[in-house]
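Many introductory courses stop at the sequence. We go one step further.
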Amino acid sequence: MTDPGNFLIPKASDEILTMALSAVVEDERTGYVERLVAFAQQHRERLEELLRAYGPGSRPAEFGRYMLVGQPESRIICERMETAAFLLRSRWDKALEDVLLDDLEFEWGPRIRLSR
């Protein structure tokens, strides 16, 4: 979704990816890559707009917000917000700062809002 030079430090990216994928339960793993590709295709315009408006180089990003938008794992997080919102939030609360997910959730606008 963006140039690798815009990613968070690799360690943070690995932590985010590991946490996001932990919200993909065992019986969803078969075929998950194909479902993720279909999700990205279905929501391509929405993902592109999200990146333009809140990704690296955007005005909100200048203030250090919406860090996840430019990360490659943001597609998984958005898909999980649509598919397994409660599981994603429960895993996230145990692992990473809430503000990262809250920012992405605010702009993505999933069917179910879980931010406090």
